[in-house]
Recover the amino acids of this structure.
């Protein structure tokens, strides 16, 4: 491990030099994960809000299922999406396997339950507080859901950031459905896995640094959001 | 014992009115406990009715049943001859003990219930409501940063926004100081003067004396008596009400929880 210092130096210089390959990998990572989180929010936030408001038989079971799916193993999601998108699969005709679209689909599936479950929890608390007011005002279910999503926007942003944290750091699903093809589907985590196995530790380490920086940024954003929410008494 | 007093005897005004309110045999039980027990009551649409009684008497439950926030176990509620449905509830508003304000600014809390109005009319109505509640200065403040008194005045302003025929208030000043309580009572008087029926729950004898036209005394889920306020405070017909009033006199009338 006498090299570890020099590897780190090399990694830092890669990060700072604006290496084109490095940045194209980072760019794809961000594009895939941000798109997946956006889609997961479009599905998960209303789903979580509806579950926090609706009263129907089996609501508890759905909530429990969502909570369980928060921890879906990425490789299993990758495998399932692979089977669906592969040539012989039901959606094989679209030829999506080994494209960024396939990675977006896999990460969306991975992250949607997380966002929906977190949204359901925080909006259920909010709904407990608003319930009698909403019923007194005679609001429709749609009006309730949209009011809850708007008033819960700070905690929902936190849920979205948690989803992004999970998506950007995940390797199991994207490597199965993306295939880690250079310049096509190679993202940060898959590159780290590959380059480490090839012994090219500097590039792996450089990407690792970026990933950690992203994690720090996400956490700082969560803290800033929470602080703003508290200051405005919106938390 | 449940006969309404002469002054408040009611006749059907017919047509569109929500009054008289006629409640008969109303009951609400939870886990085998009869929390509201065989309540019958008739209310007119003009007076300020105060539902008075000790903590846990079922006052708030009774109010929620009248507003339709809870479904009774038995009995009927008729508003102007009509069963309590969404259309009836839409003409009522309720203010809760703990002000339930949206996580928005003061004016957004009002705008929330005025969505049906065109923009200019809505802004004018918001200005008017805030002025009446002496909240003009804090129009754009986050509602939940307001003081307890301001929050409750905003909640009342919001309840008033849609010009309800009935305003329910559940211990609206239970956790407020005397000055804030006074401001809230003034607001309630102003709303009543516009022709809104007031139904207010309190355990505060002083508030009941100041606001009530008629008093419904509740104890252990039952209505013990319903009298004009002047008569009630002079001469309680039920032992429970007498004990309540005498007990309070022993320890003073100030009850700021």
């Amino acid at each position: 491990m006498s090299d570890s210092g020099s590897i780190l130096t090399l990694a830092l210089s890669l990060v700072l030099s604006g290496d084109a390959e490095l940045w194209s990998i980072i760019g794809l990572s961000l594009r895939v994960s941000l798109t997946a989180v956006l889609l997961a929010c479009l599905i998960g936030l209303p789903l979580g809000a509806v579950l926090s408001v609706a009263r129907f038989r089996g609501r508890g079971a759905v909530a429990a299922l969502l909570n369980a799916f928060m921890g879906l193993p990425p490789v299993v999601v990758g495998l399932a999406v692979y089977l669906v998108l592969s040539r012989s699969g039901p959606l094989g005709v679209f030829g999506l396997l080994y494209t960024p679209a396939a990675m977006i689909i896999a990460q969306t599936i991975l992250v949607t339950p997380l966002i929906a479950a977190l949204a359901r929890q925080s909006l259920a608390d909010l709904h407990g507080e608003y319930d009698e007011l909403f019923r007194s005002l005679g609001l429709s279910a749609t009006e309730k859901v949209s009011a809850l999503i708007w008033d819960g926007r700070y905690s929902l942003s936190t849920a979205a950031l948690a989803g992004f944290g999970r998506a950007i750091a995940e390797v199991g699903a994207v490597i199965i459905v993306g295939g880690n093809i250079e310049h096509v589907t190679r993202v940060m985590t898959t590159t780290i896995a590959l380059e480490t196995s090839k012994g090219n530790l500097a590039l792996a380490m450089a990407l690792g640094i970026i990933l950690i920086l992203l994690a720090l940024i996400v956490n700082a954003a969560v803290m800033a959001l929470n602080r703003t929410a508290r200051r405005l008494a919106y938390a | 014992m449940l006969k309404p007093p002469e002054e408040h005897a009611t006749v059907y005004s017919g047509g569109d009115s929500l009054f008289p309110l006629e409640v008969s045999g109303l009951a609400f039980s939870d886990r085998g406990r009869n929390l509201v027990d065989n309540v019958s009551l008739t209310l007119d649409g003009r007076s300020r009715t105060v539902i008075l009684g000790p903590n846990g008497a079922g006052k708030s439950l009774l109010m929620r049943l009248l507003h339709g926030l809870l479904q009774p176990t038995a009995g009927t509620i008729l508003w102007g001859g009509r069963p309590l449905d969404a259309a009836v509830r839409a003409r009522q508003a309720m203010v809760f003990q703990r002000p339930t304000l949206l996580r928005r600014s003061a004016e957004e809390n009002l705008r929330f219930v005025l969505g049906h109005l065109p923009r200019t009319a809505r802004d004018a109505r918001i200005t008017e409501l805030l002025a009446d509640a002496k909240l003009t200065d804090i129009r754009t403040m986050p509602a939940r940063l307001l003081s307890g008194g301001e929050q409750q005045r905003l909640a009342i302003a919001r309840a008033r926004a849609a010009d309800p025929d009935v305003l329910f208030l559940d211990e609206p000043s239970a956790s407020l100081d005397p000055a804030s309580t006074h401001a809230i009572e003034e607001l309630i008087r102003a709303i009543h003067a516009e022709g809104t029926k007031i139904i207010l729950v309190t355990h505060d004898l002083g508030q009941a004396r100041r606001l009530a036209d008629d008093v419904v005394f509740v104890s252990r889920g039952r209505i013990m008596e319903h009298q004009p306020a002047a008569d009630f405070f002079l001469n309680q017909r039920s032992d429970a009400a007498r004990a309540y009033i005498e007990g309070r006199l022993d320890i003073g009338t100030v009850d700021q929880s």
